[in-house]
Design goal:
β18 and β19 form a beta hairpin. This protein has 405 residues and is mostly beta strands. Helices cover 6% and strands 57% of the residues. The strands form 2 sheets. The protein has an 18-stranded antiparallel β-barrel. The protein has a 3-stranded mixed sheet with strand order 8-12-11, with no helix packed on it.
Length: 405
């Protein structure tokens, strides 16, 4: 796991020997600790983890090498304790070509916490939404080529071995789904790591005087598993497997600043998206249309308000699908900075309109100084049906400390 780090270190050492006056090295990172306690009985620990993030960069002219490493201790989930490589990539920024090759996080689109065209880097849901959104993103091994024009950019991303969502599993994980005694969950049957199963995408971004917009195309997979259940009467056992199938995506996004407001939009057609059937024993593929509209208001006096509406439409619909023909999600975020911008109060929430499910996070972040931040907050889950309803008993209070160096 750590071999790429040693390779980067050797390359940096070689650069010092041959071009010491032109090579610059930097090392920084942070230490954070996060602990959460269940609000309802039996008030168990939902999370208890401490992490050291190390980030090293070596710059030489227009080229650089970047590596980030997590050294983590998790008091609840044993497999989350250890040393984990996060990113390790080579970056070249030329006048007409930029190259980024290696393990990296790829972000597309303009949505905040929702995925329309941002489909390349999957999510780590080991602790569902208890992590910060940036920490949930999973890096991928990719080659990113970009033409950096002034009025537009052209980008091509190739991912030879795609990554997939990390779902919560294991009896010790309070975020995992409880299964019957005779049931087994297998989400590891992802496509083989072969060239034919790679991802390829392209994006054109245009920067105009009054607005920016992008056009994207991507050959990818459903990164989150669609589960299918099989029953074996001979052993009276149930096997729940994850299904991952290829799909093609065409879409785009737009961002329009208007004084104190920013209007954001994003839309994409998914060709051949995998959908589960309500009985759980099969799946179907359908074309789906996915769109989002968002409005950000920077109201002055350190107030910020953001709201988004996302809609999904399924073509050639069947009544036995798990999803509705039309489904909607709303998110909202409001924040206020106080005490000379050292205290930030925020409230963020998701609303699953069709299932009347919700998730909300109320938090206070206090900047002790430029290096230390302390946070306290509450996560609430609820609703009538759906994922947020299933996590209702996982509502929690959390505390977090972070030190940058």
């Amino acid at each position: 796991m750590l071999r790429p780090i040693f390779k980067v270190a050797l390359l940096c050492a070689s650069g010092i020997l041959f071009a010491q006056d032109e090579l610059s090295l930097s090392l920084n990172g942070f230490v954070d600790t996060y602990h959460a306690l269940q609000l309802d009985y039996p008030h168990r620990y939902m999370s208890s983890r401490t992490r050291l993030r190390l980030e090293m960069r070596a710059d030489y002219g227009d080229a650089s090498l970047f590596t980030s490493l997590n050294l983590a201790y998790n008091g609840i989930i044993d497999e989350q304790t250890g040393a984990f490589l996060r990113e390790a990539y080579f970056d070249y920024a030329g006048e007409f070509l930029e190259i980024k090759a290696g393990r990296q996080i790829v972000t597309w689109g303009v949505a905040d916490g929702l995925r329309i065209t941002d489909l390349i880097s999957p999510m780590d849901y080991t602790e569902f939404m208890a992590n910060d959104y940036d920490d949930i993103r999973v890096p991928v091994n990719a080659i990113n080529l970009k033409y950096p024009g002034e009025s537009f950019t052209a980008e091509v991303v190739f991912v030879p071995t795609p990554e997939y969502f990390v779902m919560p599993t294991g009896e010790e994980n309070p975020w995992s789904t409880e299964l019957p005694e005779n049931a087994r969950l297998d989400l590891d049957d992802t496509p083989e790591k072969r060239f034919k199963n790679s991802e390829l995408g392209g994006r054109f971004r245009f920067f105009l005087e009054t607005f920016d917009f992008s056009l994207t195309a991507l050959h990818t997979y459903n990164k989150a598993p669609v589960t299918v259940t099989a029953y074996n009467p001979a052993t009276d056992s149930i096997l729940i497997q994850g299904v991952y199938k290829p799909m093609n995506v065409i879409g785009g996004d737009i961002s329009i600043p208007m004084g104190e407001f920013v209007l954001r939009g994003e839309a994409a057609e998914y060709f051949g998206e995998v959908l589960s059937v309500a009985n759980g024993f099969s799946y179907k593929t359908r074309n789906t249309f996915n769109a989002l509209a968002g409005l950000d208001w920077y109201a002055g006096n350190n107030w910020t308000l953001m709201v988004q509406y996302m809609h999904k439409y399924i073509s050639d619909y069947r009544n036995d699908f798990s999803l509705e023909k039309n489904s909607s999600t709303v998110t909202a975020r409001i924040s206020k900075e106080l005490l000379n911008n050292t205290l930030k109060l925020s409230l963020f929430g998701y609303l699953d309109v069709d299932n009347l499910g919700f998730y909300s996070r109320a938090a206070a972040d206090y900047l002790v100084n430029d290096q230390i931040t302390l946070s306290l907050g509450v996560d609430r889950f609820g609703g009538k049906r759906g994922t947020f309803h299933s996590y209702e008993s996982n509502s929690q209070i959390f505390a977090k400390g972070k030190y940058f160096f």
